[in-house]
Automatic annotation (TrEMBL):
InterPro entries: Kinase-like_dom_sf, NEK_Ser/Thr_kinase, Prot_kinase_dom
Keyword hit for Nucleotide-binding: yes
Protein name: SNF1 protein
Listed GO MF terms: ATP binding; protein serine/threonine kinase activity
Gene3D superfamilies named among the record's database cross-references: Transferase(Phosphotransferase) domain 1 (1.10.510.10)
Gene name, Swiss-Prot/TrEMBL: SNF1
Domain Protein kinase: from-to ranges: 1-224
Keywords: ATP-binding, Kinase, Nucleotide-binding, Transferase
Keyword Transferase: yes
Amino acid sequence: CSDIVRYAFACETATDYVLIFEACDVDLWDALTGAWSRGKASSMERRAWSLQLCRAVSHCHRLRVLHRDVNPWNVLLVLEGSDSSSARLGDFGLAVQMDSPELRGWETPGAAPLDDSAIGSLYSAPELGDAYGFPADVFSLGMTLLAIWGSADLGEEELITLVEGAKQAACSASSSSSHVGSLGKGLPWGLHPVLADALAHQAAARPSAATLRDRVEVASRTTLQQVKALFKTHCHQQLTPVVLGTVLDSLGSPKESNEEMVALAFRMLGSSGRMDVDSFLKWVFQEGSSVPA
């Protein structure tokens, strides 16, 4: 998988066993918080990173490998030319091969060792350290995507506050929609409900890594022109849940994602049955989700 840091070779010294991997340029956190001299990433670059990370985690899970430590410091970027880069998932020091659907708590005799730093990380799932499985990686992936898109409009301290709020909401079983919804206009179409799902308190409520990958891919390729053209086809001045659902279906977005988007849109606009199309488009493309026209 090209979205995972490539292994080169290994050697053994008198005291250590050394693993050599491909050279990367910077970790994701430094790129997000301005420590990288290239400045802020473009929306196109953020979309690429998001999809690459989803593919990496999905690939691991297909091989029944649980990473257990997905976060912006364990994602490395490789510079490709002067204005683009690609993301690689790295640091598999805590990774385990899953022989059963879930792992036992870390203090249980025979359980897979787990660092205190991983358990206490803002990016770790609430259940990590108890009984946990693949959904724990999905949560960490969702938190990392939250950081990728939050950093588009926020400084480092504000970004940390956003991540802390999302983690607190997940741990207290409250909705993460408000934290996801505050990300601003850079978030791609349809990604609000996708991230909210990934950050669900209950592990069983989170999508699989493969489903998350597919939904992020749909969100990344949808354009403003597509959405506006579909609205012109299906409605005039007023928008109903049925019409919105039809538009989303036409975009090729998964059914469960469409239902969530409809519910979220009408709830955020405070409408019980209908809404003005212009108001909806303003929410989506100025305060919600968009890709460049």
